[in-house]
C-alpha cells in the first residue's frame, strides 16, 4: 500500500496520515499520477449513519458507502481515531460534491465525533463553510443557530468578513453573494401544496423488477439501478425567481419534470416547491438582476426534495 490511510468515495480517494503520537492529519484528495495501491490493506466499512439506501435518488458522487483502507503497519484501534475514520468519509464526499445541506446535516448529526479531531474537520469543511452555514441556517425549516455549527461558523465568518458591530449576519451574506459566485443545495418547502411529490416515485419504475431473470439477477439488478438513477438525474429542474408572486416578491419557485408524465411520454415542468423565504430574500437581494439559478435535483428521500442552485 502506498499510503497510510485512504478513504474511497464514489469518485475520489482521500489520504490521511497518522503520526507515532497518534495525531491524525489530512493530506487531501489523491491527485498523484499513480493510482492508490491498497494491496495488503485492512479494509473497513464506513458507519451507516449515512447510507444511499435511504434515498430514492442521490447525486452520483454521494451514491456510495465510503471504504477505509489502512496500511498493515498502521494501528487504528484507538476508539476516537476509529470512530472518526468510519464517519468522515460521507462528509468528505458531501463537501467535494458541494452538497452544502448534506454536509451540514452530517456534521450536526455526528458533531461530537468530528470534533475529536477538530482541526482536521475544520480544514475539510473550510472550502464550503459559507455555503454550509447558509443552507443550514436559512434553507431549512428547522431552526439552526450559526453558533451550533462551531467548526463551520469560525471559517465562514472569516470568509464573510463578518463584524457584528457593523452589520447583521444577513447583510454579510448579501454582501458576500453580491461579490462571489456560489453553488449550494437547499431543501424545498411547501411541497405539500403541489402534486409533484406524489408523482415522484412512478409505479412503472417499481415494475421494472417484475421481469428480472433469476439467472441474470445481479446483472439485471445493476441495469435497473442505473436506469433509475439516470432517469432522476436527467429530470429537468429549474430554480427561478417569481417576482409576480403576490404574497412574496422575493419568492423563488422550483419546477421539475413530472416523473409519471415523463414516463408516459409527456415531458413538462411542474411546480415542486419553493426555496424557503429567509434564503430567497438574501439570494434575491444579493443578485436582483439574476432571475434563473440553474437547477439540478440533488436528492429525493421520503417527503424531502433537495435541489442544487448557483449564484
TrEMBL record:
Protein name: Uncharacterized protein
Organism in which the protein naturally occurs: Treponema bryantii
Amino acid at each position: 500500500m502506498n499510503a497510510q490511510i485512504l478513504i474511497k468515495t464514489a469518485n475520489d480517494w482521500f489520504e490521511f496520515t497518522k503520526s507515532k503520537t497518534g495525531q491524525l492529519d489530512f493530506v487531501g484528495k489523491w491527485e498523484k499520477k499513480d493510482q492508490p495501491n491498497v494491496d495488503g490493506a485492512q479494509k473497513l466499512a464506513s458507519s451507516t449513519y449515512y447510507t444511499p439506501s435511504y434515498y430514492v435518488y442521490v447525486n452520483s458522487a454521494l451514491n456510495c458507502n465510503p471504504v477505509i483502507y489502512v496500511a498493515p503497519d498502521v494501528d487504528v484501534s484507538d476508539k476516537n481515531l476509529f470512530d472518526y475514520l468510519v464517519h468522515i468519509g460521507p462528509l468528505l464526499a458531501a463537501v467535494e460534491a458541494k452538497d452544502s445541506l448534506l454536509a451540514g446535516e452530517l456534521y450536526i448529526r455526528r458533531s461530537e465525533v468530528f470534533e475529536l479531531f477538530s482541526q482536521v474537520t475544520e480544514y475539510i469543511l473550510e472550502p464550503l463553510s459559507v455555503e454550509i452555514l447558509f443552507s443550514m441556517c436559512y434553507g431549512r425549516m428547522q431552526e439552526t443557530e450559526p453558533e451550533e455549527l462551531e467548526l463551520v461558523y469560525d471559517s465562514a465568518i472569516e470568509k464573510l468578513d463578518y463584524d457584528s458591530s457593523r452589520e447583521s449576519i444577513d447583510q454579510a451574506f448579501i454582501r458576500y453573494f453580491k461579490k462571489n459566485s456560489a453553488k449550494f443545495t437547499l431543501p424545498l418547502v411547501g411541497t405539500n401544496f403541489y402534486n409533484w411529490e406524489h408523482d415522484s416515485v412512478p409505479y412503472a419504475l417499481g415494475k421494472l423488477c417484475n421481469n428480472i431473470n433469476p439467472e441474470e439477477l445481479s446483472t439485471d439488478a445493476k441495469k435497473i439501478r442505473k436506469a433509475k438513477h439516470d432517469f432522476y438525474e436527467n429530470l429537468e429542474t429549474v430554480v427561478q425567481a417569481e417576482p409576480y408572486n403576490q404574497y412574496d416578491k422575493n419568492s423563488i419557485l422550483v419546477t421539475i419534470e413530472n416523473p409519471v408524465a415523463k414516463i408516459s411520454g409527456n415531458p413538462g415542468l411542474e411546480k415542486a416547491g419553493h426555496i424557503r423565504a429567509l434564503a430567497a430574500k438574501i439570494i434575491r437581494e444579493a443578485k436582483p438582476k439574476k432571475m434563473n439559478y440553474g437547477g439540478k435535483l440533488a436528492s429525493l428521500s421520503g417527503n424531502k426534495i433537495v435541489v442544487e442552485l448557483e449564484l
